[in-house]
Amino acid sequence: MKNYDYSENGAYFVTVCSKNKEALFGKVVGDGIPDVPLAECEDNGNVYVKLSNVGLTVQQTIEYINEHNENIEIEKYVIMPNHIHLIIMVNRINDIGFGTSGKPSPTENGDETRANEIIPNLISSLKRYTNKQSGIDLWQRSYHDHIIRTQKDYDEIWEYIDTNPIKWELDKYFMG
User: Fold this and answer.
1) With 0-12 CB in 10 A as exposed, 13-18 as middle and 19+ as buried, what is 173?
2) What is the pLDDT of residue 171?
3) Which of 4, 17, 70, 139 has minimal Cβ neighbours within 10 Å of its Cβ?
4) How far is CA 110 from the centre of its chain?
5) Residue 43 region by backbone torsions, left for phi larger than 0, else alpha for psi between -120 and 50, else beta
6) 87-127 residue pLDDT tens
7) What is the dihedral of CA 73, 59, 165, 85, to 10 degrees?
8) In this structure, are residues 36 and 46 in contact, taking their beta carbons and an 8 Å threshold?
């Protein structure tokens, strides 16, 4: 969101789509999805996303972010065939933000500007690293973000992420 202060502690819901919404990250398999053999399903036919190598790179990157950042945590995520959804919790312990290299970025206005770039820099880092690892340009230029303001909102988004694979054919990003 333009001019929003991303240095505020709190939860953010972020969606990032693949370039041209191509199904680069995997495929949804399981009951209810046409032409998908049940032999590919986990847990007696539950619907899930079978990640491609690129999808596995995205997953490993998200896990790396969680292990190596004290100011943010990706509390919940789903990698869909052509997009990812993330609940990102910002919990600034200190006053230093980070740049795309994981180090404080140079700014004209000091730490306040760096802190304000936490979410944009996180998404930029995720995109750049996964592009480099996969050898192709994976992502569309922008992303969608939503500030989670209430527990009800948080719970509804958590449920949306949990059920996203099951509702894949109804998803606005579905490109069947």
Assistant:
1) middle
2) 75
3) 70
4) 28
5) left
6) 999 987 654 444 444 443 333 444 443 446 788 999 999 99
7) 40
8) no
